[in-house]
Amino acid sequence: MEPSSKIWVDGEFVDWDDATVHFLAHGLQYGTGVFEGIRAYKTPEGTAVFRLHEHMLRLNASARAYGIPMPWTVDQLDEACLELLRVNGLESAYIRPLSFYGAGAFGIDPASSPVLTYMAAFYLGSYMGEDGVQKGITTMVSSWRRISHSSFIPSAKGSGQYLNSVLAKQEAVSAGFDEAIMLNDSGSLSEGSGMNLFMVSGGVVSTPPASSGILEGITRDSVIRLLRAEGVEVRELDLARGSLYTADEIFLTGTAAEVTPVREIDRRVVGTGGPGPVTRKAQDLFSDAVAGKLSDYREWLTFT
User: Fold this and answer.
1) What is residue 144's predicted lDDT score, i.e. its pLDDT?
2) Helices marked H in the chain — which ranges?
3) pLDDT per residue as tens digits for the range 157-176
4) Which residues, in sequence order, are CB contacts of 61 under 8 Å at separation 6+?
5) Biggest CA pair distance of the chain
6) The pLDDT value given to residue 64
7) Exposure check for the chain: N or C terminus, fewer CB within 10 A?
8) Checking DSSP bridges between strand 137-141 and strand 258-265, what pairing results, if any?
9) Cβ–Cβ < 8 Å for 95, 81
């Protein structure tokens, strides 16, 4: 992460170092907030935010799901994002909006706390490193299970629920792996610590469904649509852990991770040990889409 000049704080632009919150903010004490991860890309026609409106719609939906009164409309957040990029002079960026309860209530019930909304934009390279994008990353199946529909709202991006992902990521890194793959309570495959999971067998792509406890990622949706348009069969179905070890290819998707190949799972080599043809196709299609090279998907781009 490279710090930028300004952060948007409830309609005002504040210097990076001054965008602070009170120690007793409810969101800091209890994780009562919702957030998004969005990317903007440099294209021949200028800076373009990828699927901006869909991201802000999901932020709004996450707030509703957790009962957080959102003080800004989706359209207002869209414009705030574009203005933030312009103010910071960023041609490409990772964007992080966060709405959370500030200081007020100290107990569990946050109702008497104000809702604050911050948004940062800064340069961020490949989340898993350029080497990971080109050659693939190593993964392990985590001992930590993905949060379930009976205890959290997996389809929302609630701040506190990501402690679950932190545990899985820490376990994987401490064991010498790049990333974790998480199972759900029933033992079926769910997702990575912050990425959606895809596997390829016999040319057919499979990915866990929403019912498996995943976040329905916007990059995930983009890749599914891009591959299907190219005639690739993509199935959403429950997948057993063992299917990881027989897959020809595995890749992960996310706003930060984009399309990241997996070359190893639980110290077993995936396929030939490098990104396979379907993974490369997904990477190429996604790269072309965010760069504005695919006319059929121009509506996914919002230019600054």
Assistant:
1) 98
2) 26-30, 52-65, 74-88, 130-135, 163-174, 218-229, 243-246, 277-290
3) 999 999 999 999 999 999 99
4) 156
5) 56
6) 98
7) N
8) parallel
9) yes
pLDDT, residue 126, reads 80
Has 157 been annotated as catalytic?
A: yes
Phi, psi (deg, nearest 5) at residue 212: -80, 0
pLDDT recorded at residue 123 = 94
- DSSP one-letter code for 92: S
- Length of the chain in terms of residues written: 304
CB within 8 Å of 59: residues ≥ 6 apart:
34, 35, 36, 70, 74, 77, 97, 99, 157
Q: From 196, 66, 212, select the one nearest 145 (Cα to Cα).
A: 212
**Interatomic CA distance for residues 109 and 49, integer angstroms:** 36
pLDDT digits (tens, 9 = 90+) for 24-65: 999 999 999 999 999 999 999 999 999 999 999 999 999 999
Nearest to 151 by CA among 184, 183, 179: 184
Structural domains in the chain, CATH included, are 6-122 (3.30.470.10), 130-290 (3.20.10.10)
Which is catalytic among the residues 157, 169, 281, 293? 157
Residue type at 132 in one-letter notation:
G
Cα gap 89→87, rounded to integer Å: 6
Amino acid identity for residue 45 in this structure: E
Residue 291 to residue 101: CA distance in whole angstroms: 36
Using the predicted structure, report yes or no on whether residue 131 has a pLDDT greater than 90: no
Mean pLDDT throughout 177-194?
98
Give the count of beta carbons closer than 10 Å to the beta carbon of residue 237: 11
Beta bridge partners of 140: 180
Confidence of residue 127 (pLDDT cuts 50, 70, 90): confident
CA distance 186 to 16: 44
pTM over 0.90: yes
